[in-house]
Design brief:
Distance between the termini: 31 Å
Strand content: 5-15%
Largest sheet: 6 strands, mixed
Mean pLDDT: 84
Radius of gyration: 20 Å
Oligomer: single chain
Helix content: 25-40%
């Protein structure tokens, strides 16, 4: 399939370490700090038609002749491979006197932080700087390419470090997610040049729980949701949560939820951790209405 791209020839040359003017994006700049975020318990209004500019994407999206994005096959990368890739990307950023803080979701959390899966395809992230510029995206893309050149595309894949997830996170949610990720301060990876924080556990859980309402959910989605919930519970006194709080999260993040999905997740949580995550279901019988897809 043919691809079109706005890349220059220089961008396809091998990446080398070279000093540059120092730039910190470890915190939102002053004018970004004043952006509104959603207070707890307040539903958010989302624009379903919002899509980020291609210039803000990492890597810059390649498109086929039909205009759709083209994605190559990504190899599965184990924990040590991801840590090496992140360290190599951080080395590149550090050589440019730059430090970025990014917020990660998905597979990197299971593989590197929670260690509930052996491998994942990529590191899904969004920038923690609300005033991120297109040149920041290009710098992160160069860091990702530098890691690929050092480790090998057959072992890492060209899209191993990407923020494609921003296609599915409405811009109105960014201030809330950034603020909560920083308050949570769960470090997935940290080295001179790069810090990776986990996205808010409440958002991770709510996104995963919504997927269980769809017909194409995966067999690992229920335990994934249970592990996300566990992290939130542990960070908040190791006490079971209310069903009302789960519905509050859904309203805040513009997600759908249902009591039967929450109850099923609580059943798996109970199996894994010998306790209830939701106090409304404490002492109730197990509930397993779902059939796994694989």
């Amino acid at each position: 399939m043919g691809c079109t791209s706005s890349r220059t020839a220089e961008e396809d040359e091998p990446i080398s370490l070279r000093p540059s003017r120092r730039r910190h994006t470890s915190g939102p700049r002053e004018h970004a700090q004043n952006r509104e975020w959603t207070p707890p318990g307040q539903p958010i209004t989302l624009d379903p038609n919002y899509r980020p500019s291609p210039a803000d994407r990492v890597p810059y999206p390649r498109r086929g002749s039909d205009g759709r994005e083209v994605h190559g096959q990504q190899p599965m990368v184990e924990r040590e491979g991801l840590l090496r890739a992140l360290s190599t990307a951080a080395e590149y950023l550090g050589s440019r006197n730059t430090h970025y803080t990014i917020i990660a979701l998905g597979g990197v959390l299971y593989t590197v932080l929670l260690q509930t899966r052996r491998a994942t395809e990529d590191v899904d992230f969004f920038f923690s700087d609300l005033a991120v510029r297109p040149e920041d995206a290009r710098t992160m893309e160069q860091a990702g390419r530098y890691a690929v050149e050092r480790i090998g595309s057959d072992r890492l894949g060209d899209n191993w470090l990407n923020n494609q997830i921003v296609n599915f996170i409405p811009r109105a949610l960014w201030p809330t997610l950034v603020q909560r990720a920083r308050r949570q301060n769960t470090v997935v990876f940290q080295s001179p040049g790069l810090t990776v924080l986990a996205a808010p556990w409440s958002y991770c859980y709510t996104s995963k729980a919504e997927r269980l309402l769809q017909s194409n959910y995966k067999s690992h989605d229920i335990p994934d949701a249970a592990h996300y919930l566990r992290q939130y519970v542990l960070a908040h006194g190791n006490k079971p949560l209310s069903l009302q709080l789960i519905h509050q999260w859904a309203a805040e993040y513009g997600r759908h939820t249902s009591n039967h999905v929450t109850r099923e997740i609580n059943t798996v949580y109970r199996d894994l951790f010998r306790s209830d995550a939701i106090r409304d279901f404490k002492g109730t019988a197990d509930f397993r209405p779902f059939q796994s897809d694989s």
